[in-house]
Amino acid sequence: MQKQLLRWFDRHARKLPWRSQAARRDPYRVWVSEIMLQQTQVATVIPYYRRWLRRFPNLRALAGAKPAAVLKAWEGLGYYSRARNLHAAAREVVQCHGGRLPATRDDLLGLPGIGRYTVGAILSLAFDQQEPLVDGNVARVLARLFGIRQNVKSGAGQARLWKLAGALVPAKRPGAFNESLMELGAIVCSPQNPRCDACPLNRFCVALRRGWTEQLPNTGKRPKSRAVRQRALLIWRDGRVLVRRRPAGGLLGGFWEFPGDELSAVRHDAGRRVAVVRHGVMNDRLTVEAFDCPWRGGEPSAKDKGIRWRWATPSDLKRLTFTGAHRKIIRSLSDSRSARSRTTNLESRITADT
Ligand code: SF4
After folding, report:
1. Is 323 a pocket residue for ligand 1 (Cβ < 6 Å)?
2. Which of 186, 204, 221 is the last residue of a domain?
3. Which residues of 218-241 are buried (b: 16+ CB within 10 A; e: fewer)?
4. What is the rounded CA–CA span in Å between residue 75 and residue 18?
5. Of 114, 129, 144, which residue is a domain's last?
6. Gap from CA of 145 to ligand 1 centroid (Å)
7. Nearest ligand 1 atom to alpha carbon 201
8. For the segment 289-338, what is each residue's pLDDT rounded down to a tens digit?
9. Which of 52, 96, 155, 255 is 20 to 30 A from 339 in CA distance terms?
10. Among all residues, which ones are annotated catalytic?
Protein backbone atom coordinates (compact mmCIF):
# COMPACT_ATOMS: atom_id res chain seq x y z
CA MET A 1 0.00 0.00 0.00
CA GLN A 2 2.82 2.41 0.87
CA LYS A 3 4.41 1.79 -2.52
CA GLN A 4 1.23 2.51 -4.48
CA LEU A 5 0.66 5.69 -2.52
CA LEU A 6 4.21 6.98 -2.96
CA ARG A 7 4.14 6.19 -6.66
CA TRP A 8 0.89 8.11 -7.01
CA PHE A 9 2.32 11.02 -5.00
CA ASP A 10 5.42 11.22 -7.19
CA ARG A 11 3.20 11.51 -10.25
CA HIS A 12 0.25 13.56 -9.08
CA ALA A 13 1.24 15.75 -6.13
CA ARG A 14 0.63 19.45 -6.64
CA LYS A 15 3.75 21.57 -7.08
CA LEU A 16 3.79 23.88 -4.10
CA PRO A 17 6.49 26.31 -2.97
CA TRP A 18 7.13 24.42 0.29
CA ARG A 19 7.61 21.17 -1.62
CA SER A 20 10.81 22.15 -3.44
CA GLN A 21 13.92 20.13 -2.57
CA ALA A 22 15.50 23.13 -0.84
CA ALA A 23 12.39 23.86 1.23
CA ARG A 24 12.11 20.24 2.31
CA ARG A 25 15.68 20.22 3.59
CA ASP A 26 15.13 23.34 5.68
CA PRO A 27 13.36 22.62 9.00
CA TYR A 28 12.52 26.32 9.38
CA ARG A 29 10.62 26.41 6.09
CA VAL A 30 8.85 23.13 6.88
CA TRP A 31 7.80 24.54 10.22
CA VAL A 32 6.54 27.87 8.80
CA SER A 33 4.53 26.18 6.04
CA GLU A 34 2.96 23.66 8.42
CA ILE A 35 1.90 26.38 10.86
CA MET A 36 0.49 28.55 8.06
CA LEU A 37 -1.44 25.62 6.58
CA GLN A 38 -3.29 24.92 9.82
CA GLN A 39 -6.95 25.86 9.29
CA THR A 40 -6.05 27.72 6.09
CA GLN A 41 -6.45 26.85 2.40
CA VAL A 42 -3.37 26.15 0.30
CA ALA A 43 -4.20 28.91 -2.22
CA THR A 44 -4.43 31.48 0.58
CA VAL A 45 -1.16 30.39 2.14
CA ILE A 46 1.03 30.53 -1.00
CA PRO A 47 1.51 34.35 -1.25
CA TYR A 48 1.87 34.65 2.54
CA TYR A 49 4.52 31.95 2.61
CA ARG A 50 6.52 33.64 -0.17
CA ARG A 51 6.29 37.08 1.43
CA TRP A 52 7.20 35.67 4.85
CA LEU A 53 10.35 34.06 3.55
CA ARG A 54 11.41 37.24 1.81
CA ARG A 55 10.85 39.15 5.04
CA PHE A 56 12.24 36.46 7.44
CA PRO A 57 14.41 34.14 5.33
CA ASN A 58 15.64 32.13 8.32
CA LEU A 59 14.94 31.42 11.94
CA ARG A 60 17.38 34.03 13.25
CA ALA A 61 15.79 36.74 11.11
CA LEU A 62 12.41 35.85 12.59
CA ALA A 63 13.77 35.74 16.14
CA GLY A 64 15.30 39.21 15.71
CA ALA A 65 12.14 40.80 14.28
CA LYS A 66 9.87 43.17 16.18
CA PRO A 67 6.48 41.68 17.20
CA ALA A 68 4.67 44.34 15.16
CA ALA A 69 6.59 43.33 12.01
CA VAL A 70 5.71 39.67 12.57
CA LEU A 71 2.03 40.44 12.98
CA LYS A 72 2.11 42.70 9.92
CA ALA A 73 3.51 39.86 7.79
CA TRP A 74 0.71 37.62 9.08
CA GLU A 75 -2.01 40.21 8.63
CA GLY A 76 -5.09 38.71 6.94
CA LEU A 77 -4.11 35.08 7.54
CA GLY A 78 -6.12 34.84 10.79
CA TYR A 79 -5.52 32.88 13.99
CA TYR A 80 -2.84 35.35 15.05
CA SER A 81 -1.70 33.26 17.98
CA ARG A 82 0.07 31.16 15.35
CA ALA A 83 2.28 34.14 14.40
CA ARG A 84 2.95 35.05 18.02
CA ASN A 85 3.88 31.46 18.83
CA LEU A 86 6.17 31.19 15.79
CA HIS A 87 7.95 34.32 16.92
CA ALA A 88 8.23 33.22 20.55
CA ALA A 89 9.42 29.75 19.53
CA ALA A 90 12.05 31.22 17.16
CA ARG A 91 13.43 33.30 20.02
CA GLU A 92 13.51 30.27 22.30
CA VAL A 93 15.31 28.20 19.67
CA VAL A 94 17.97 30.91 19.36
CA GLN A 95 18.34 31.11 23.14
CA CYS A 96 18.19 27.42 24.04
CA HIS A 97 19.06 25.41 20.91
CA GLY A 98 21.79 27.46 19.23
CA GLY A 99 19.43 28.79 16.53
CA ARG A 100 18.62 25.36 15.05
CA LEU A 101 15.25 23.70 15.35
CA PRO A 102 15.75 20.63 17.54
CA ALA A 103 15.32 17.20 15.97
CA THR A 104 13.70 15.42 18.91
CA ARG A 105 10.08 15.04 19.79
CA ASP A 106 10.39 16.25 23.39
CA ASP A 107 12.40 19.36 22.55
CA LEU A 108 9.99 20.29 19.79
CA LEU A 109 6.95 19.72 22.00
CA GLY A 110 8.47 22.14 24.52
CA LEU A 111 8.28 25.03 22.03
CA PRO A 112 5.27 27.39 21.90
CA GLY A 113 2.62 26.48 19.32
CA ILE A 114 4.11 23.10 18.40
CA GLY A 115 1.83 20.11 18.97
CA ARG A 116 1.91 16.48 18.06
CA TYR A 117 0.99 17.03 14.40
CA THR A 118 3.68 19.69 13.83
CA VAL A 119 6.27 17.49 15.53
CA GLY A 120 5.40 14.64 13.15
CA ALA A 121 5.61 16.98 10.16
CA ILE A 122 8.97 18.53 11.12
CA LEU A 123 10.62 15.25 12.11
CA SER A 124 9.44 13.26 9.10
CA LEU A 125 9.67 15.95 6.40
CA ALA A 126 12.77 17.85 7.46
CA PHE A 127 14.72 15.22 9.42
CA ASP A 128 13.61 12.08 7.59
CA GLN A 129 12.56 10.37 10.83
CA GLN A 130 10.00 7.56 10.84
CA GLU A 131 7.37 9.63 12.66
CA PRO A 132 3.65 9.63 11.87
CA LEU A 133 1.24 12.51 11.68
CA VAL A 134 -2.53 12.78 11.70
CA ASP A 135 -4.44 15.84 10.56
CA GLY A 136 -8.00 16.15 9.23
CA ASN A 137 -7.08 14.83 5.78
CA VAL A 138 -5.16 11.86 7.14
CA ALA A 139 -7.96 11.06 9.60
CA ARG A 140 -10.49 10.98 6.74
CA VAL A 141 -8.32 8.78 4.53
CA LEU A 142 -7.50 6.31 7.32
CA ALA A 143 -11.08 6.16 8.60
CA ARG A 144 -12.34 5.28 5.13
CA LEU A 145 -9.48 3.03 4.18
CA PHE A 146 -9.78 0.90 7.31
CA GLY A 147 -13.55 1.33 7.81
CA ILE A 148 -13.14 3.00 11.23
CA ARG A 149 -16.62 3.86 12.51
CA GLN A 150 -15.47 5.33 15.81
CA ASN A 151 -15.73 9.09 16.22
CA VAL A 152 -12.36 10.26 14.85
CA LYS A 153 -12.42 13.27 17.17
CA SER A 154 -12.85 11.24 20.35
CA GLY A 155 -9.86 10.32 22.49
CA ALA A 156 -10.16 6.66 21.56
CA GLY A 157 -10.62 7.48 17.86
CA GLN A 158 -7.55 9.71 17.83
CA ALA A 159 -5.49 7.10 19.66
CA ARG A 160 -6.48 4.52 17.06
CA LEU A 161 -5.61 6.80 14.13
CA TRP A 162 -2.20 7.72 15.55
CA LYS A 163 -1.44 4.07 16.18
CA LEU A 164 -2.41 3.17 12.63
CA ALA A 165 -0.45 6.07 11.16
CA GLY A 166 2.56 4.97 13.22
CA ALA A 167 2.29 1.42 11.94
CA LEU A 168 2.03 2.59 8.33
CA VAL A 169 4.79 5.17 8.08
CA PRO A 170 7.77 3.52 6.37
CA ALA A 171 11.44 3.88 7.29
CA LYS A 172 12.21 4.96 3.74
CA ARG A 173 10.75 8.32 2.67
CA PRO A 174 8.61 8.79 5.82
CA GLY A 175 8.05 12.48 5.06
CA ALA A 176 6.91 11.82 1.51
CA PHE A 177 4.59 9.10 2.78
CA ASN A 178 2.99 11.41 5.35
CA GLU A 179 2.60 14.08 2.73
CA SER A 180 1.10 11.64 0.27
CA LEU A 181 -1.62 10.69 2.77
CA MET A 182 -2.43 14.36 3.28
CA GLU A 183 -2.36 15.02 -0.45
CA LEU A 184 -4.67 12.08 -1.14
CA GLY A 185 -7.13 13.50 1.40
CA ALA A 186 -6.86 16.96 -0.15
CA ILE A 187 -7.33 16.13 -3.82
CA VAL A 188 -8.88 12.63 -4.10
CA CYS A 189 -10.42 11.42 -0.84
CA SER A 190 -12.32 14.65 -0.32
CA PRO A 191 -15.03 15.08 2.34
CA GLN A 192 -17.84 14.99 -0.25
CA ASN A 193 -17.81 12.87 -3.40
CA PRO A 194 -14.38 11.26 -3.06
CA ARG A 195 -12.90 10.31 -6.45
CA CYS A 196 -12.52 6.62 -5.64
CA ASP A 197 -12.03 5.67 -9.28
CA ALA A 198 -8.83 7.77 -9.34
CA CYS A 199 -7.60 6.58 -5.94
CA PRO A 200 -4.41 4.50 -5.84
CA LEU A 201 -5.70 2.71 -2.72
CA ASN A 202 -9.20 1.84 -3.92
CA ARG A 203 -8.56 -1.87 -3.91
CA PHE A 204 -7.67 -1.79 -0.20
CA CYS A 205 -10.50 0.53 0.86
CA VAL A 206 -13.07 -0.89 3.29
CA ALA A 207 -15.41 2.13 3.02
CA LEU A 208 -15.55 1.80 -0.76
CA ARG A 209 -16.23 -1.93 -0.56
CA ARG A 210 -19.01 -1.51 1.99
CA GLY A 211 -20.60 1.66 0.60
CA TRP A 212 -19.58 3.79 3.62
CA THR A 213 -17.67 6.57 1.89
CA GLU A 214 -20.41 9.13 2.57
CA GLN A 215 -20.75 8.19 6.25
CA LEU A 216 -17.07 8.18 7.13
CA PRO A 217 -15.28 9.70 8.82
CA ASN A 218 -17.57 9.81 11.82
CA THR A 219 -16.89 13.22 13.36
CA GLY A 220 -19.58 12.92 16.01
CA LYS A 221 -21.78 15.52 14.33
CA ARG A 222 -25.28 14.48 13.48
CA PRO A 223 -25.97 15.84 10.02
CA LYS A 224 -29.41 17.35 9.43
CA SER A 225 -31.90 14.71 8.41
CA ARG A 226 -33.66 14.93 5.04
CA ALA A 227 -37.27 14.05 4.28
CA VAL A 228 -37.36 11.86 1.16
CA ARG A 229 -40.47 10.53 -0.63
CA GLN A 230 -40.25 7.43 -2.79
CA ARG A 231 -42.61 5.20 -4.74
CA ALA A 232 -42.45 1.42 -4.82
CA LEU A 233 -44.24 -0.41 -7.63
CA LEU A 234 -45.68 -3.83 -6.91
CA ILE A 235 -45.92 -5.13 -10.46
CA TRP A 236 -47.95 -8.34 -10.35
CA ARG A 237 -47.84 -11.04 -13.00
CA ASP A 238 -49.55 -14.39 -12.52
CA GLY A 239 -49.30 -14.24 -8.72
CA ARG A 240 -45.65 -13.12 -8.74
CA VAL A 241 -44.26 -9.68 -8.11
CA LEU A 242 -41.19 -8.03 -9.64
CA VAL A 243 -38.25 -7.43 -7.29
CA ARG A 244 -34.60 -6.56 -7.75
CA ARG A 245 -31.40 -6.89 -5.79
CA ARG A 246 -29.33 -3.74 -5.26
CA PRO A 247 -25.76 -3.87 -6.60
CA ALA A 248 -23.11 -5.01 -4.14
CA GLY A 249 -20.80 -2.31 -2.85
CA GLY A 250 -23.29 0.57 -2.87
CA LEU A 251 -25.63 1.69 -0.11
CA LEU A 252 -27.70 -1.32 1.07
CA GLY A 253 -25.84 -3.41 -1.47
CA GLY A 254 -27.21 -6.95 -1.83
CA PHE A 255 -30.65 -6.14 -0.35
CA TRP A 256 -33.84 -6.78 -2.32
CA GLU A 257 -36.49 -4.18 -3.06
CA PHE A 258 -39.43 -3.34 -5.30
CA PRO A 259 -38.62 -1.14 -8.28
CA GLY A 260 -39.52 2.55 -8.48
CA ASP A 261 -40.70 4.67 -11.38
CA GLU A 262 -37.49 4.31 -13.38
CA LEU A 263 -38.56 1.05 -15.04
CA SER A 264 -38.97 1.77 -18.73
CA ALA A 265 -38.94 -1.69 -20.30
CA VAL A 266 -41.85 -3.05 -18.26
CA ARG A 267 -45.38 -1.91 -19.04
CA HIS A 268 -47.88 -1.84 -16.21
CA ASP A 269 -51.04 -0.12 -15.03
CA ALA A 270 -50.74 3.12 -13.08
CA GLY A 271 -52.00 1.20 -10.07
CA ARG A 272 -53.65 2.18 -6.81
CA ARG A 273 -51.93 3.03 -3.57
CA VAL A 274 -51.95 0.09 -1.18
CA ALA A 275 -49.54 1.11 1.55
CA VAL A 276 -47.55 4.03 2.96
CA VAL A 277 -44.59 3.28 5.21
CA ARG A 278 -42.10 5.46 7.01
CA HIS A 279 -38.54 4.44 7.67
CA GLY A 280 -35.29 6.08 8.79
CA VAL A 281 -32.20 5.14 6.80
CA MET A 282 -28.90 6.78 7.63
CA ASN A 283 -29.73 10.43 7.50
CA ASP A 284 -32.95 10.22 5.53
CA ARG A 285 -36.52 10.08 6.78
CA LEU A 286 -38.13 8.02 4.05
CA THR A 287 -41.81 7.95 3.21
CA VAL A 288 -42.47 5.18 0.71
CA GLU A 289 -45.82 4.83 -1.06
CA ALA A 290 -46.50 1.40 -2.54
CA PHE A 291 -48.76 0.93 -5.58
CA ASP A 292 -50.34 -2.25 -6.88
CA CYS A 293 -49.64 -2.25 -10.63
CA PRO A 294 -50.77 -5.20 -12.75
CA TRP A 295 -48.21 -6.14 -15.41
CA ARG A 296 -49.04 -5.42 -19.04
CA GLY A 297 -45.91 -6.69 -20.81
CA GLY A 298 -42.12 -6.40 -21.15
CA GLU A 299 -39.23 -7.59 -19.04
CA PRO A 300 -36.84 -5.54 -16.89
CA SER A 301 -33.67 -4.52 -18.64
CA ALA A 302 -30.45 -6.20 -17.53
CA LYS A 303 -28.57 -3.06 -18.62
CA ASP A 304 -27.88 -1.85 -15.08
CA LYS A 305 -24.80 -3.74 -14.08
CA GLY A 306 -24.97 -5.60 -10.82
CA ILE A 307 -28.78 -5.47 -10.48
CA ARG A 308 -30.60 -8.82 -10.38
CA TRP A 309 -34.27 -9.08 -11.24
CA ARG A 310 -36.74 -11.71 -10.27
CA TRP A 311 -40.47 -12.44 -10.40
CA ALA A 312 -40.91 -13.38 -6.76
CA THR A 313 -43.50 -15.72 -5.30
CA PRO A 314 -45.09 -14.91 -1.90
CA SER A 315 -42.71 -17.37 -0.26
CA ASP A 316 -39.72 -15.63 -1.95
CA LEU A 317 -40.92 -12.41 -0.34
CA LYS A 318 -40.61 -14.07 3.07
CA ARG A 319 -37.24 -15.65 2.32
CA LEU A 320 -35.31 -12.85 0.56
CA THR A 321 -33.64 -10.08 2.55
CA PHE A 322 -35.40 -6.79 1.79
CA THR A 323 -34.39 -3.24 2.67
CA GLY A 324 -36.01 -2.07 5.90
CA ALA A 325 -38.59 0.16 4.18
CA HIS A 326 -39.64 -2.49 1.69
CA ARG A 327 -39.86 -5.16 4.39
CA LYS A 328 -42.32 -2.81 6.10
CA ILE A 329 -44.37 -2.68 2.89
CA ILE A 330 -44.54 -6.48 2.77
CA ARG A 331 -45.56 -6.59 6.44
CA SER A 332 -48.16 -3.89 6.00
CA LEU A 333 -49.72 -5.73 3.05
CA SER A 334 -49.88 -9.05 4.87
CA ASP A 335 -51.32 -7.29 7.98
CA SER A 336 -54.05 -5.64 5.90
CA ARG A 337 -54.76 -8.95 4.15
CA SER A 338 -55.19 -10.75 7.45
CA ALA A 339 -57.29 -7.83 8.77
CA ARG A 340 -59.43 -8.13 5.67
CA SER A 341 -59.84 -11.85 6.18
CA ARG A 342 -60.67 -11.31 9.90
CA THR A 343 -63.32 -8.76 8.90
CA THR A 344 -64.74 -11.13 6.32
CA ASN A 345 -64.92 -13.92 8.91
CA LEU A 346 -66.59 -11.60 11.36
CA GLU A 347 -69.08 -10.42 8.73
CA SER A 348 -69.90 -13.94 7.75
CA ARG A 349 -70.38 -14.86 11.41
CA ILE A 350 -72.67 -11.85 11.94
CA THR A 351 -74.63 -12.75 8.84
CA ALA A 352 -74.94 -16.32 10.05
CA ASP A 353 -76.10 -15.18 13.53
CA THR A 354 -78.88 -12.95 12.23
S1 SF4 B 1 -11.13 4.47 -2.36
FE2 SF4 B 1 -12.30 6.34 -2.12
S3 SF4 B 1 -12.90 6.42 0.05
FE4 SF4 B 1 -11.27 4.89 -0.17
S5 SF4 B 1 -9.40 6.00 0.31
FE6 SF4 B 1 -9.65 6.08 -1.91
S7 SF4 B 1 -10.79 7.96 -2.34
FE8 SF4 B 1 -10.95 7.54 -0.14
Report:
1. no
2. 221
3. bbeeeeeeeeeebebbbbbeeebb
4. 20
5. 129
6. 6
7. 6
8. 999 999 999 888 766 667 889 999 999 998 888 888 999 999 988 876 66
9. 255
10. 34
Q: Name the closest-CA residue to atom 2, ligand 1.
A: 196
Domain shared by 116 and 173, yes or no: no
1 Cβ partners below 8 Å, 6+ apart?
168, 201, 204
The CATH number given to whatever domain includes residue 299 is 3.90.79.10
The CATH number for 91's domain is 1.10.340.30
Domain limits at 170?
133-221
Hey, which of 145, 149, 164, 183 would you mutate to test ligand 1's pocket, going by the most ligand atoms within 8 Å of its Cβ?
145
pTM: 0.65
Judge if the beta carbon of residue 200 lies within 6 A of ligand 1: no
Write the CATH number for 141: 1.10.1670.10
How far does residue 140's CA lie from ligand 1's centre (Å)?
A: 9
Asked if residue 141 has its Cβ within 6 Å of ligand 1, the reply is yes
Number of separate domains in the chain: 3
Tell how far the Cα of 82 is from the centroid of ligand 1, in angstroms. 32
pLDDT, tens digit, 9 for 90 and up, residues 243-285: 998 887 667 777 899 998 877 778 888 889 999 999 877 678 8
